[in-house]
Design goal:
Blueprint lengths: L2 E12 L2 E12 L3 E5 L6 H8 L7 E6 L2 E2 L8 E4 L11 H11 L4 H14 L15 H13 L5 E5 L7 H16 L4 E5 L3 H7 L2 E6 L2 E6 L1 H6 L5 E7 L5 H8 L5 E7 L2 E6 L2 H14 L4 E7 L3 H9 L6
Parallel strand pairs: 3-8, 3-9, 6-7, 7-8
Antiparallel strand pairs: 1-2, 1-4, 4-5, 9-10, 11-13, 11-14, 12-13
Length: 312
């Protein structure tokens, strides 16, 4: 496997406090690499170092085998979380201006503008000013701005933030198109677990500046043990701790926690244990508002590793 980005013992300190702490990471050519972590985990700092916007305190960054100081930064495109567009220029004018900054020949640039806007379903807005676009259209145009110069490596920072479901699906299809049809290497940072699950070839989970886990989504979900997740919501949330104490007597429970007023159990043979769970609730004169069974998710993996939700 050809590694397009290699981070070796990467450290970044601010006021002698490590924000990125000895990070070792390899990103393969042509893959979608999902980069997950809570706010303040070190994701943005790492990406800023890859992009050349920050200098590492220690360690090495290799891009296509070269030290990043000798790498052509034009081969990287970044789509920031914040929308960066010129409101009083049209879609075409925004992309044309960005393309000229990269010195793309006029005939090639015009062809690329048409192709990208068509793929992102913005072709009918080609002569519309940015100020006239919806939020979802602006976000799609923001991505177009990042890739107008046909970069080999694309960094997408929470690209689906604030999008409606239809726009999100369109965007996901385009990201997969960039990988499968254009051979792009894509680094995806996101707080949306289903986005990371559906798009990423591999996922790295980072917290406190350290890489906690790196694998495929499927393997990550298998990594936190056997069994399904049973979620319970009681009629009276103040009774959660009492019920948790009683539920611990049921055999084959791997783990039990309380989160967002819901009791969460991991156990084997979950379906066969539902009568026992309901009996415990009834025995304690508590009422059951809701109960559900599901398989592991990436969010379960994250909570298992860090003990917190992605957004704090």
């Amino acid at each position: 496997m050809n590694d397009v980005i290699i981070l070796e013992n990467l450290v970044k300190e601010f006021n002698d406090i490590p924000v990125v702490d000895g990070l070792n990471l390899k990103i393969h050519k042509g893959e979608i690499f999902g980069f997950l972590g809570p706010n303040g985990a070190g994701k943005s700092t790492t990406i800023n170092m890859i992009m050349g916007l920050l200098e590492p305190t220690k360690g090495k960054i290799l891009i296509e085998g070269n030290d990043k100081s000798h790498f052509n930064q034009g081969k990287i495109g970044i789509c920031p979380q914040d929308i960066v567009l010129w409101d009083y220029l049209t879609c075409k004018e925004n992309l044309h201006l960005m393309g000229k900054m990269y010195e793309i020949p006029e005939d090639i640039l015009n062809k690329q503008i048409i192709d990208i806007l068509d793929k992102l379903q913005l072709i009918d807005k080609i002569d519309s000013k940015v100020s006239e676009l919806s939020g979802g259209m602006k976000r799609r145009l923001n991505i177009a701005m990042a890739i107008i110069h046909d970069p080999d490596i694309i960094v997408l920072d929470e690209p689906s933030e604030g999008l409606d479901p239809q726009s999100r699906i369109l965007l996901w299809e385009y990201i997969l198109y960039l990988k499968e049809n254009k051979g792009k290497t894509i680094i995806l940072t996101t707080h949306l677990m289903d986005e990371a699950d559906k798009l990423s070839d591999r996922i790295g989970i980072i917290d406190m500046g350290k890489l906690l886990k790196l694998d495929t989504a499927s393997n990550l979900k298998k990594s936190i043990g056997d069994g399904d997740i049973v979620e319970i919501e009681l009629g009276d949330h103040t009774e959660n701790e009492k019920i948790i104490k009683s539920l611990k007597n049921i055999s084959e429970i791997k783990n039990i926690t309380s989160m967002k007023n819901r009791i969460q159990l991991r156990l084997l043979n979950a379906v066969t244990k539902l009568p026992d769970i309901i009996h415990v609730i009834d025995e304690n004169n508590s009422s059951l508002k809701d109960i559900s069974i599901r398989q592991n998710t990436l969010e379960d993996v994250f909570i298992e590793l860090t003990g917190k939700k992605l957004r704090n």
